[in-house]
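User: tokens in, sequence out, please.
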């Protein structure tokens, strides 16, 4: 991996937002390290600095992940977030208190959420309970 990306990795690992599991800044935001601007996509997640696009495939630039690739930029960002930085910025806290996390706030089904917290709906708990019974 490029020396600048190694520096960026260190800056991310030392950041307050990562320690708090807050959402990462977008490239160009005030809290985003300047070095990311030369690698990622401005206005997108800071983690795009670690992703390259070849045709319609997005590839992870971390050598230790054995060349992860996907056809979705969101999946590539999710991969970087979870597998390389252990970041879990989107908690869901249901009434029973068993907190769990989703890898990204833009889910394929309707799930009202903010950039920090998902809202729990009892009907989802009912559906999940029914699914376990079958």
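Assistant: Sequence out:
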């Amino acid at each position: 991996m490029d020396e600048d990306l190694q520096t960026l990795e260190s800056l991310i690992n030392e950041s307050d937002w990562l320690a708090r599991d807050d959402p990462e800044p977008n490239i160009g935001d005030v809290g985003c390290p300047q070095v990311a601007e030369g690698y990622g996509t401005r206005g997108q997640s800071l983690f795009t600095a670690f992703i390259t696009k070849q045709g319609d495939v997005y590839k992870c630039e971390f050598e230790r992940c054995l060349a992860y690739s996907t056809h979705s930029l969101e999946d590539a960002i999710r991969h970087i977030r979870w597998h390389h930085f252990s970041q879990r910025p989107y908690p869901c806290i249901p009434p029973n208190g068993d907190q769990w996390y989703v890898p990204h706030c833009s889910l394929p089904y309707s799930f009202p959420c903010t950039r920090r917290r998902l809202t729990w709906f009892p009907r989802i708990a009912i559906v999940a309970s029914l699914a376990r019974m079958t």
